[in-house]
Hints:
Layout: H1 2-28, H2 30-41, H3 46-74, H4 80-93, H5 123-128, H6 132-145, H7 147-158, H8 161-172, H9 175-182, H10 191-203, H11 207-218, H12 224-228, H13 230-237, H14 242-268, H15 285-294, H16 296-303, H17 306-316, H18 327-330, H19 334-341, H20 360-378, H21 383-401, H22 422-430, E1 438-440, E2 454-456, E3 466-470, E4 491-501, E5 504-514, E6 517-523, E7 527-536, E8 544-545, E9 550-559, E10 567-574, E11 580-586, E12 603-611, E13 619-629, E14 638-639, E15 644-646, E16 649-651, E17 655-657, E18 673-678, E19 683-690, E20 694-695, E21 700-709, E22 718-725, E23 731-738, E24 753-761, E25 769-779, E26 782-794, E27 808-814, E28 818-825, E29 829-830, E30 835-844, E31 853-859, E32 865-871, E33 888-896, E34 904-913, E35 923-925, E36 929-930, E37 935-942
Parallel strand pairs: 1-2, 1-3, 8-17, 20-26, 29-37
Antiparallel strand pairs: 3-5, 4-5, 6-7, 6-14, 7-9, 9-12, 10-11, 10-13, 13-16, 13-17, 15-16, 18-19, 19-21, 21-24, 22-23, 22-25, 25-26, 27-28, 27-35, 28-30, 30-33, 31-32, 31-34, 34-37, 35-36
Helix pairs in contact: 1-21, 3-6, 3-8, 7-8, 7-10, 7-20, 8-20, 8-21, 10-11, 10-20, 11-14, 13-14
Amino acid sequence: MMSAAVDTLVQFAGPVLAGLAAAALAHRWRHRIQAGIDRCKSLIPPRRASRASLVFITIVYIATFSTLSLVAHFNFHTHNDLAIHAQVMWNTTQGRWFDTTLLEDRPTNYLGHHFSPALLLLMPLYILWPDAALLLVAQTFILALGVVPIYLYARRVTGSEMVAAALSAAYLLYPALHYTNLFDFHEIVLAVPLLSFTAYWLLTGRYRLFFVFLALSLLVKEEMILVALAFPCYLILVQRKRRLGLMALLLVLLSGFLIIGVAMPALRGDAYFPKGRYDYLGATVGEVARSLVLNPALVFQHLVIPAKIEFLLLLLVPLGLLPLLGLDTLIFALPTLAYLLLSDYEPQYSITYHYASPMIPFLFLAAATGIGRLMRWSGGSLAVAASAFVLAASLASYLLHSPGPLARHFNENNEYAIWPHLRSGYSALAAIPPEAPLMTPEEFAPHLAQREQIYIENENYLPVEYILQETVARTASPRYPALIPDSRGLLYPYSETVFDQDGYWVRRYVESVPISHDVVVSFDDTLTLLAYQWRDDQGRPLAQIVPGAYLDLLVAWRAEGQALERYTFFVHLLDPQFHRLSQVDQEVEGGVYPTDLWEPGMVVADHYRLSVPWGTPPGEYHVLIGAYSSSSGQRLPPKCGACVVRDNALILAPVQVVRPASQAPPGAVSPQHPLNIRFNSEIELVGFDLGLTSMQPGDTVPLILTWRALADVTDTYAISLVLDQTDGATRLRCLEEPIGLTYPSSGWKRSEVVRDWHDIHVPLDAPPGKHELLLEVRRGDEVIGETSLGHVTVSGRIRQFALPEIEHPTAARIGEGALLLGYDLSSQGIRPGDTLRFTLYWQALEEMPVSYTVFTHLLDKEGQIWGQMDSVPLRGEAPTTSWVTGEIISDQYDIVVDPEAPPGNYVIEIGVYDPSTGQRLPVFANGHSEEGDRLLLEEVKILP
Length: 944
């Protein structure tokens, strides 16, 4: 608390105190300083010296802030505001006057959004340099130009070249000016020199020029109507020139009527009102006026808040509060200050944005008036002290509040640090043709604005030709064009990738594809699959694929949860025996728009590209689709009535694989173990893939044999696999099946390649040791050839058949194949965060074809889980498919108790389920009466 108070004191009192200290020292040594100035007069006249100093500091300012603006721009740190103005300028040069596609409310003409015909003043420069960078450089020059009237007026009212130069330097050191300069480009900057000159001509009595510049100022932006109301007030109240004041008032009011009442509604299609900024006062100008008059308490409540007080201090402190001594001149700033402070839109009362820029010159002119009064009161002796005060206060404020070099807030957002992905970003930009319609992230828009159609990425897909996306965003999460339902149904914006490098993607829009297969399947009430559609490699809406090609699955997901975590979607292509041929696991478009950015009710399109290896047999194949947590891997279970579910995923309509029109190209077929063995004139074994070379009895090991037809095959062939122990002790047959279970060899054509998938079931009585895997090829009863597929190792575990001593005996049959004999429990009292260890004793009643999973839960009285462990028996080493009838398995489990578990009595819940379906096996008490699908063991006490 104390450090925050000290920091606030330094920020706001520090510059004033620094100015006072500098003024005191300068006043004390004023005679020496004046003597030095007098000696210099012989070398260079004071006016020439002050003008030279003004030119020098202005050049330094322009060079510094132009460079910073350009570095930030070329480092992708400029945004939509710059892009809007760049596109407006470019469209105007093409004859589409003030057109833009970058506005949120989508008016086609920028003048309907902000009435700024004064932008045409920059058109000659833009024609010479048609780039957003021109606007950034021009903005720096424009803001610097505002110093000229300040210098002229300060010299006039103080009679001191020194004070005029000091006040000019303070203007160029002003933090609010710097933030305006470095925040993209805004048309409001044109008002800074125009208003500065307008006020100067008025203050010096040059009324013709005053009216000319007043009229130009009114063309900068619609809010200049309010800003300009200060000038007729000054003419009438201060200068007592009622006739000129009424003329100026008439000009302002007439301009306001034509701009806000006629032109802008005609261009935008509705009445103009700054929405979201004065809602507490009303929704129309009339309602706002009534609230200001009739509800002053409400106005006061919104005016006197810490942020707005801080805003005022940040405007006045860099000038040492001197504008308060020139209250008559400060009238110029009051309308601007009023509409900024009345707003509830935070950027309007912050110096880090551009909204305060119209009153910056007025504050300096008021400060000059105040210094002039001090000079007249002191007889001119305060010139040195006043100059020192202004310079010290402005320099201290610069260091404390400016975003410029050497200041405390310089490069806070790393705008000027070279982005490591810069080269890839510019390569992505180069991949987009000039003038092509485009959707892009905000930071790239200024670089691509020279085109008729450009859109900032949003949640409503727009039919543009190119989409630029990125996954390396620094300041905001990337967006993906979401799918929205409309009268035509669900549409997927199909596109092809033309650039993919270092997290930058460029896609070219091809067409919008209807997603017509409605399914509406909920996944754990979190995501809903609404519909899907197939497209083959020719772009046809067919669920048909040729080996070596690809098939696109287009889907529409809807977010249901209030706060989604990050999920990954998966699609598997399975053969009729549910072997996995290919798969895709991805977040939406490779992570461009992850699910934790989705909002409830949002519908998002995605597509998954499935490829099929050469040699895949023709026939119908299954497609599995689902989602799982990107962090834990836990799948979201689908919930549906008539649909088919497997492995916590949804099975879609079948996909048809058809025979390829041409043979596989060289190198397309590359089995893990190449052989190229000819068995006769019809078939050749190209090679094989073996899933495991170390296995256990009862394991199922995938074997893929790759065959080539040497001619049109007429016979049906079969294979026999033998495990032959190397010492000749045993010879076990583990498989006898025809070649091509779903695609018999008798249908193969010359040069056709076929991948033939078989499951090797390692016999339960296979002895441990090294075995040779032998393949026999048969034609009927005739063996036409034999070859070795290498050696495999069978690693057996020690089997137990004797009944051990069991601490808690029981007799519960689980399903048809397992009997729970009992369990041992390490302790019946345990603390939160500790591990509860227990052992289950199973006896195999028969051989089981399915590898089941055992679940163990620690439950409180309400059934809430406070710890669990799910595992294949013996932590995966004794799958139920390896159990031998009569065998006893000692199966240990460790449950970590939730650290938040409250003290009390708990029970252990166990059971068995099929992991592919989630279906639990029934439990039979005493071996015959069914008791449900779980078994409750001993109570456990959680200690405090």
